[in-house]
Amino acid sequence: MVMDTCYAVIFSSQRTDGDHGYGAMSDKMEELAAKQPGFLSVESVRDASGAGITISYWESLEAIQNWRQNGLHQVAQEKGKQAWYESYNVKICKVERAYSYPAAGHS
Amino acid sequence: MVMDTCYAVIFSSQRTDGDHGYGAMSDKMEELAAKQPGFLSVESVRDASGAGITISYWESLEAIQNWRQNGLHQVAQEKGKQAWYESYNVKICKVERAYSYPAAGHS
C-alpha cells in the first residue's frame, strides 16, 4: 500500500478528577469528528491516573483547521479548559512513514 | 518559544496477556532511548486492556534511524514481536506546530 500524504494531531492530556459531563461530550466529539471532510481515523488511550493520548489522522492541514474551528468543537474546547483538563498539549504532524506488525501489506 | 524542527515516533500497540519480562525491558529501553543522541522526550500511556500509545520525540530522522538500529533495541524489537505485542503500528512524523494549555510561553 502506498501511503497518501496524511497528518496527525497528537492530543496529550491530563484529566481533572470527576466526570463533569466529559464522557458524553467526548463520545459526541469523536462521532462529530468522524463526519468531517478529510477525517481518516482516531485512536485513543487513557489510563487510570487520567493521563491520555488521542491521535486523529487527517488528509490535510485544512481539514485539521476546519475541525478546530467547528462551532460545537469550539464549545467543547472551551469547556475542556474550564473543567476537564488540568493540562494538555497538541502537536500537529505530517506523517512521513508508517509500518505495522503484523505487516498490513506492502508499502 | 520558537520550536526547532522535531520529529515524533508514534508507537501504538496492543499487549499480549502476562508480563513475560516486558516491564523490566520497557523500563530499560526508555532509559536507553533517553541517552541516545538527538533524543528529546517521551510520553506513554497504557490502559487496563493493554492498549498503549508511546510517543518519542527526536531532533532528526537520523537520530530515529540510529535508535531503531541500536543493538539492544533490536533485541527488544524481536522479543516484542515474539512475546509482548499482539499488534503494533509505528508512524514517523515531522512536527509542524505545537501548542499547550496552560500556555507554556509565546510561540
TrEMBL record, chains A, B:
UniProt KW keywords: Monooxygenase, Oxidoreductase
GO molecular function annotation: monooxygenase activity
PROSITE patterns hit by this protein: ABM
Domain annotation ABM: ranges: 6-92
InterPro entries: ABM_dom (IPR007138), Dimeric_a/b-barrel (IPR011008), Jasmonate_Hydroxylase-like (IPR052936)
Name this protein carries in UniProt: Antibiotic biosynthesis monooxygenase
Source organism: Paenibacillus glycanilyticus
